[in-house]
TrEMBL record:
Residues 121-131 have a biased composition (Basic and acidic residues). It comes from the Bacteria. This is DUF1093 domain-containing protein. Residues 110-131 are annotated as: Disordered.
Length: 131
């Protein structure tokens, strides 16, 4: 009897862990194509820092710099997703202000992109929501 109770408890814990693991994966990595407009003002170029607050460098001990962008993405289904993207590099080139970009976006991050596109490449219904 005790083995069955322990077995049921373990099964419940595995199911709960699986559910929360799937939710994390879906929010973080399951992405969809979306479009955004780059903010009009170029953000300040700052020295990048790692998770410990130390200045970040590349593999050759060169300082990394970043631009912090805030995007309001519109997916092809019409959903709006807001998130932050850090353009990072030794000498990063800022995105062109007012330009259109596309990317693969999840609820928590930009998984691929942003890549510049022309206004004619943005679907009309998405363009209406962006403007």
């Amino acid at each position: 009897m005790m083995k069955r109770i322990i077995g049921v408890i373990v099964l419940i814990l595995v199911a709960v862990g699986g559910y929360f693991g799937y939710r994390y994966w879906a929010d973080t990595y399951q992405s969809t194509k979306a479009y955004a407009v780059v903010q009009q003002q170029v953000p300040e170029k700052t020295k990048a820092k790692d998770d410990d607050g130390k200045l970040a460098t590349d593999g050759h001990d060169r300082q990394l710099y970043q631009y912090e962008y805030h995007f309001d993405w519109v997916t092809t289904s019409g959903k709006t997703i807001s998130n932050t993207f850090y353009l990072l590099g030794v000498n990063p080139t800022p995105l062109k202000p007012g330009s259109y970009v596309t990317g693969e976006v999840s609820n928590k991050r930009v998984n691929q992109g942003p890549n510049a596109v022309s206004e004619s490449d943005v679907p009309k219904d998405v363009l209406a929501k962006l403007n």
